[in-house]
Design brief:
The complex is a heterodimer of chains A (111) and B (118).
Chain A (H helix, E strand, L loop, with lengths): L8 E4 L5 E6 L12 E5 L6 E4 L13 E6 L2 E6 L9 E8 L4 E4 L3 E5 L1
Parallel strand pairs in A: 1-9
Antiparallel strand pairs in A: 2-6, 3-4, 3-7, 5-6, 7-8, 7-9
Chain B lengths: L2 E4 L3 E3 L5 E8 L7 E7 L6 E6 L6 E3 L7 E6 L4 E6 L8 E9 L3 E5 L3 E5 L2
């Protein structure tokens, strides 16, 4: 069981908006630690998509946005495109474990 | 450009040890921590541990701390992960990644496939 909980899968039609949730606890997200999001296509290296809960690295389209509230965080993708179909992972730091922790990952399907 | 280049794929027998390298270039090596992350076939990402090349400080995932050691050689800008007493469920792609607590893992190595099989 992952310390951060994500839905196994989400789906949406092209052009729609989807959100992926990441639920933690008072020892990680709720303790104020930043949340980061990664995008991974099959057989490829993960790519940093959102850092510091809400920031996009250079080159990441503004269709991708992050938010955080309490012990949870979310990744939103607007104007869904076929090439967004990938696995998405959230990540934070857990002060009880003194470890970085990942969510279990969410597979996004573009219908 | 900033990059992390890892050593090649390996096949190991159960009970053996493996050591994977990650050579950094294009930035000041001692400024950024390096994490190791692994991904078993069809599974998610698992953080294994990290090292600060500046002072050698390390921290490990609780479920691996008895079997894993991460080291850094500042003379060659290379980080290593060693995993001992290998089991079949250690079969995975192992990644190194430049890590900052507030900024995530922004640069990743290409991955090293470690296969544990008799």
């Amino acid at each position: 069981q992952s310390v951060l909980t994500q839905p196994p899968s989400v789906s949406g039609a092209p052009g729609q908006r989807v959100t992926i949730s990441c639920t933690g606890s008072s020892s990680n997200i709720g303790a104020g630690y930043d949340v980061h999001w990664y995008q991974q296509f099959p057989g490829t290296t993960p790519k940093l998509l959102i850092y510091g809960s809400t920031n996009r690295p250079s080159g990441v389209p503004d269709r991708f946005s992050g938010s955080r509230s309490g012990t949870s965080a979310s990744l939103a993708i607007t104007g869904l495109q076929a090439e967004d179909e990938a696995d998405y992972y959230c990540q934070s730091y857990d002060r009880s474990l003194t470890n970085w922790v990942f969510g279990g990952g969410t597979k996004l399907a573009v219908l | 450009q900033v990059q992390l280049v890892q050593s090649g794929a390996v096949l190991k027998r159960p009970g053996a040890s493996v050591k994977v390298s990650c050579k950094a270039s294009g930035y000041s090596f001692t400024i950024y921590a390096i994490s190791w992350v692994r991904q078993a076939p069809g599974q998610g990402l698992e953080w294994m541990g990290w090292i600060s090349p500046y002072n050698g400080y390390t921290d490990y995932a609780q479920n691996l701390q008895d079997r894993v050691t991460i080291t850094a050689d500042t003379s060659t800008s290379t980080v290593y992960v060693e995993l001992r007493s290998l089991r079949s469920d250690d079969t995975a792609v192992y990644y190194c990644a430049r890590s900052v607590l507030s900024e995530g893992m922004d640069v990743w190595g290409q991955g090293t496939t470690v296969t544990v099989s008799s």
